[in-house]
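Slide 14.
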Amino acid sequence: MSLVEFLKRRLVSSELDEQIDRIGKPIGSLGYDPWGYNNDTLKIGYAITREIFEKYFRVEVDGIDRIPAEGPVLIIANHSGQLPIDGLLIGFALASRKTRPRIPRAMIERFFPTVPYLGNLLNQFGAVLGDPVNCAKILANDEAVIVFPEGVRGSGKLYRDRYQLKRFGNGFMHLAMKYKATVVPVGVVGCEETIPALANIKPLAKVLGLPYFPLAAPVVLPAKIHICVGEPMFFDDDDIPEEQVTARVELVKAAVGEMVKRGLNQRKRIF
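Slide 15: predicted structure.
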């Protein structure tokens, strides 16, 4: 018996096993898709994530049914917390919803695949290198994609800058327009407190080839997390100048900001 089979038997409930199989994804004869996604690895990961989701972070989700059940979707969220915990929790919330669940992809920063073991593991969970070509192919396949337009500007922000949205790149809007993808704004509150960073040690980050090296807590703290999903947004595939594309991006950023505010208002305590 392989390690994957052993873990699957020990950790994955029949309910979760059947739910992931019902959602399904097009995979090859060896059990992987072109980006490395694997059904069995996802089942084990989600079995562990369920415990973290429900008992450690005690996640509350508002509006998850607003994410369309089919067709190309860009789930646009704020980014924070040093590690991609926010993407994992959004993905689990969508895959475990009662009505018409779906397994989203997550675009990850370029430095994560360079971390030993982490890159392959994230790929098997459905994460993909945050590259416009990858995102375009996935949208063309009518999938849902989680995108953090702040990039490392968001995940690497210091605690003093918590919940202050950084600049959004325009790339996702060009893709949304080209592939007629629904854009869904999402605000995540709580991840800023999971690994609060007091400083960025830039010289060490440069030596290690990392975008940042935070002076932060050596553990992931059990902050209570709120995920707030906004109303879907639609943008025509117009031939417009870049400044108008930027204006559309700012509309999405404002919608994400409103979801963050909603989460902060809902939060009764940090831990």
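Speaker note: The domain at 62-266 is CATH 3.40.1130.10 (Glycerol-3-phosphate (1)-acyltransferase).
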